Amino acid sequence: xxxxxxxxxxxxxxxxxxxxSSEGSYSRHSGFFRSYPVxxxxxxxxxxxxxxxxxxxxxxELSKHYYRTSGIYRNAIELRANLSLYDTVLTxxxxxxxxxxxxxxxxxxxxxxxxxDNLNVPLNFSxxxxxxxxxGVYHGVLRQEGDKLVIQDxxxxxxxxxxxxxxxLDVLEFNVSYFDTIPDADDRKTALNSFPVEVKKxxxxxxxxxxxxxxxxxxxxxxxxxxxxxxKTPILIASIPSIYKMDEAVDREAKRDEDELSKLLIQxxxxxxxxxxxxxxxxxxxxxxxVAQMLKDRxxxxxxxTFGETSLESVQDSTAASQSSDRISKxxxxxxxxxxIASLLFNxxxxxxxxxxxxxxxxxxxxxxxxxxxxxxxQVNKRFxxxxxxxxxxxxxxxxxxxxxxxxxxxxxxxxxxxKMYAGVALGIRQSNxxxxxxFENEMLGMTEKMVPLQSSYTTSGTNQGGRPEKAISDxxxxxxxxxxxx
Length: 487
Fold this sequence. Notes:
Elements: H1 3-14, H2 44-53, H3 56-69, H4 71-81, E1 88-93, H5 102-119, H6 121-135, E2 137-145, E3 148-153, E4 159-164, E5 170-175, H7 185-193, H8 197-208, E6 215-218, E7 224-228, H9 240-261, E8 263-268, H10 281-294, E9 301-306, E10 310-314, H11 318-321, H12 324-339, H13 352-384, E11 390-395, H14 403-415, H15 420-426, H16 431-444, H17 447-450, H18 478-486
Parallel strand pairs: 8-9
Antiparallel strand pairs: 1-11, 2-3, 2-7, 4-5, 5-6, 8-10
Helix pairs in contact: 3-4, 4-6, 5-13, 9-12, 14-15
């Protein structure tokens, strides 16, 4: 296939929006499909009805709409997608009481580490986490050509998962009628060839009548990927009504602020002792017109002409307007409460509460990382395990907030003889890089003879600075934190 045609195929895929529910029921729309929602006329009643009884497709469209239009909703998803640092540790497991050839262990270990590096865990799995928070699920397939690895996203509408295998992994099922949505025969063939051979075989059998149902299993053994969280609906979907109400409240307060600036100039025309007009109606009209013309460039002042005195009044009482910020604050707090995320993460006004809020977010991400680690562990053992050597795979609980804390924990462990590898990975250095750096520095550059270790709390018995080390913020009493903030 020519380069131009391949690029056209890729561009077509970018514009594809699968019309099928991830649970199997679907309807075809005419023409090509959009990958993003175009609806924008959501009302609070519509949103509540969708959350209580809408289809998965509708809920995911609603989630994508708010991801594009709501800063709070987008930030909540992006924070969680990028919270973990995805530091990984691969551990060979073998019977230390039996003789295992060192060279064999090291060679296999190096091959397994290369596979992990090529999998590019930080990049791929932060993207997967974003998709899970956005739609509730992620479906894909691992493609491998030599040492090159690609995680190919699959359209949710043509995927489902109903079972788990004996490794605790969700079994991905794919609807091969997906390929019938590709109008060009060459493009269809290219797409089929990008999937495992089992999928291509199922597609041919389905069209020949040998397969009655269009569904085929893409198990983890042949590269299938299926991750979900909770009930497979967008995780933060229940927070959207509160966000909607907050947006409405902001609009109302903006109108109140506008009304507070508006003034009404009231001209009261004089009346004589007999109750008759001093000016004729034509003269009153001329006076009104002249004042209106004089103030035509003042957008915040309107003119009302009546009979009697003249005064300048505000359209809205300023005392009522002064309560605007309090009302917005209540709606805002409620929106963040529904998201399950502390507004302090984006607008901190205290220290202790922020530290505990972060730990809550980390707990959710660590749970997701354990699901990812289970799948990656299976893939490593499938490729590199033997009768005498198995592999364990771990994603460390390091996040953008707790890296220093986790580092110190592993460093102290290394001081007592525990793994140096964990300490290095906690620093953000990949295992393969650690081994190469140590060999390069020690064997090739001879840095152990040329350099004296830097002075630190880990290489000296004490420092010249006296006094007790300062406590971490999360360990301080609330009153102490308030006093520190006041200083």
